[in-house]
Design goal:
Layout: E1 2-6, H1 15-20, E2 31-33, E3 36-41, E4 44-51, E5 58-65, H2 68-78, H3 85-92, H4 96-104, H5 116-125, H6 131-145, E6 148-151, E7 154-157, H7 162-167, H8 170-174, H9 180-194, H10 207-214, H11 222-233, H12 244-253, H13 259-265, H14 270-285
Antiparallel strand pairs: 1-5, 2-3, 3-4, 4-5, 6-7
Length: 287
């Protein structure tokens, strides 16, 4: 087993994101426990533990299975290590309310998915339901139909493969908590991909072109397409203005009127602005 320490450029935070978008001890497919997360991605099995946020961040990586170099690059991607938060702070400095928000969550960024397929299925699941319910359905889907591996007494999961989901009957998928309509969407997309459609190649198109391709799938609207691309590529130039929580967060922040200027000046960080605004709204609404 290989052990490596990654040192992301500070400020760096991701624990808050992982804790909000997971169920302790349940596969999403990553299993998050005590600031550590473990999962399988293809031939890679790893565990990553985060310490020292936000100013002295360290990601302690244990590679249980697979090529070390491939595993580390995968983890850098999933943990969004290459995002330079200082550049984001510099970009929003001229907008006081937004700069204050960026400082409030200094270094925080979303985790990413290893594949566009995983991001797309998760985004479809999350349509028009609460985050809590969406996480529970994803966990059911992964635990019942995902790849399960046990190494050194620890259990790891991978997201279900397209051919697996395509082969399931309606009742099997509905048993996870999915609606009949979402079962139809997920089976349809999975079938097309299992028959050879290269969905991962869309990540390398211009975002507008990728969105145009994704919305051709039944059940995929603009919001779902944008969210899936952002979650799988880390491209933050996409806005999520179709999202109610984002719009409410921007309104709460009081920057709706200056949004066009913000987008113009900080286009490469628009997605991060939307993410932090929605997160702040959720935090505020729970008080």
């Amino acid at each position: 087993m290989k052990e490596v320490i990654l040192r992301p450029k500070p400020p760096y935070q991701i624990i808050k994101h992982l804790s909000m978008y997971s169920i302790p001890g349940k596969p999403i497919p990553g299993i998050y426990e005590g600031n550590c997360c473990r999962r399988v991605v293809g031939e890679i099995a790893y565990e990553a533990c985060i310490e020292g946020e936000p100013d002295e961040p360290r990601i302690m990586v244990r590679v249980y299975k697979g090529d070390d170099y491939t595993a580390l690059n995968l983890i850098k991607h999933i943990y969004n290590v290459n995002l330079d938060y200082n550049k984001f702070l510099n970009c929003v400095r001229r907008f006081p309310k937004l700069h204050k928000l960026a400082l409030k969550y200094r270094g925080l960024r979303p985790a990413l998915t290893p594949t566009l397929y995983e991001a797309l299925i998760k985004s479809i699941i999350s349509q028009n339901i609460s985050q809590k319910l969406a996480l529970r359905i994803v966990s059911n889907l992964v635990s019942r139909f995902g790849t399960k591996v046990e190494i050194e007494g620890k259990v790891f999961y991978d997201f279900p493969k397209p051919d697996t989901l395509a082969s399931l009957n309606t009742q099997e998928l509905k048993s996870t908590g999915l609606s009949l309509r979402k079962v139809e969407y997920i089976k349809g997309i999975s079938k097309v991909i299992s028959e050879g459609y290269d969905i991962e190649s869309l990540k390398y198109l211009r975002p507008t072109d990728a969105v145009r391709e994704l919305v051709k799938f039944k059940g995929v609207g603009v919001w779902t397409a944008k969210l899936s691309l952002m979650a799988s590529t880390g491209n933050l130039s996409l806005d999520l203005l179709e999202d109610k929580a984002v719009r409410r967060g921007l309104k709460l922040l009081g920057i709706s009127k200056s949004l066009d200027e913000i987008i113009s000046r900080c286009r490469e960080y628009v997605g991060l602005i939307m993410y932090l605004s929605a997160l702040d709204f959720e935090v505020h609404s729970k008080r």
